[in-house]
Amino acid sequence: MSRIISIIITIAILVGLAALAFTTIDVLAPEPEQADEKFTGLSVFAEQISREDLDFAVDAQGEVRPQREIIVAPQISGRIAYVSSDFIDGGFIRRGQVLVQLEAADYELAVVRAQSGVASAEQRLAREQAEAEIARQDLINLGITDSSPLARREPQLAEAQAALESAKAQLADAELALARTAVIAPFDGRVRQETVDVGQFASPGQSLGQIFATDIVEVALPITDDELGRLGLPLAFAETSTQQGPRVVFSASVAGEPREWIGRVTRTSAAVNAQTRLINVIAELRDPYGASADDGAPMAPGLFVNAKIAGTKIEDLLVA
What is the tens place of the pLDDT at every residue in 278-302? Predict the structure, then answer.
């Protein structure tokens, strides 16, 4: 019996010691730190909103070409007697300047012959007029009132008048041919090509060279239908005094320097390109070699340029 009591007492002591140990550990253990959890917001960018006007613009490219360019050719035949020193590749020419002169001797002789023919026709007409007046007086003296036109010499008078008109026409034709011995520049411009020299025989319509006017150059700028809408232009646009076309800023590199010229859209092409489905707007630059040149650099034909076309404008937008 005493053995059982000893075992119970031993177990009780062990349980008490275990309880005491757990209590001590719980009392002496440090308090866990409390972390303050902070809310992390979303990362955003902020910008001040302002009121502005929005200008649309369209970028395009094209090649500069002269608005007027012709082939120089004589209207008559003859040997070339003179070629202007300005009529060379790259030369500047003036309106009314004689570029090429054909030998005029044959045409001067033709004028003299025509003048002689006019003088003869005038003499014949004067003679017929005098004879017609004599015939009229004779008929009056004879008391004949129902004479025929032939008796009054009216057909002869009409024939002489017609002969005079024909002679005058031949004289005008000879003088016109004489005037055409001088090939004259129809505008201020430059010479693109010259293929003639003194002593060469020229035929009517034969090319003597090629010249272009320097008053206006133009650029065909292909754009899409949407871009045409951004410009606010109809498909069939043509500039008038009351409706001017959009402003265009041309730019290109000339002699290693960036250059700019200010022009204007004046019209659209007649049809949409069937292959590209683009439509050309035609922009012009006036006086490219003078007032519109950029520090002396002209927007010359053949130059490939970039173009920024000013489009429509939307006012008072909130812009962020």
Answer: 999 999 999 999 999 998 899 999 9
CA atoms of 264 and 294, how far apart (whole Å): 16
CA atoms of 175 and 167, how far apart (whole Å): 12
Whole-angstrom distance, CA of residue 290 vs CA of residue 261: 12
Q: State the number of CA atoms in the 13 A half-sphere of 132 facing the CB.
A: 19
Report which of 75, 74, 76, 94 is spatially closest to residue 84, judged by C-alpha positions. Answer: 94
Q: What are the DSSP calls for 45-76, one per residue? A: -----EEEEEEEEEEEEEEEEES-EEEE--SS
How many of the other CB atoms lie within 10 Å of CB of 263? 25
In angstroms, how far is CA 249 from the centroid of its own chain? 13
Number of neighbouring beta carbons within 10 Å of residue 29: 8
The model's confidence at residue 40, banded by pLDDT at 50, 70 and 90, is: low
Provide DSSP, 132-169: HHHHHHHHHHHT--S--TTTTTHHHHHHHHHHHHHHHH
Partners of 297 in beta bridges = 294
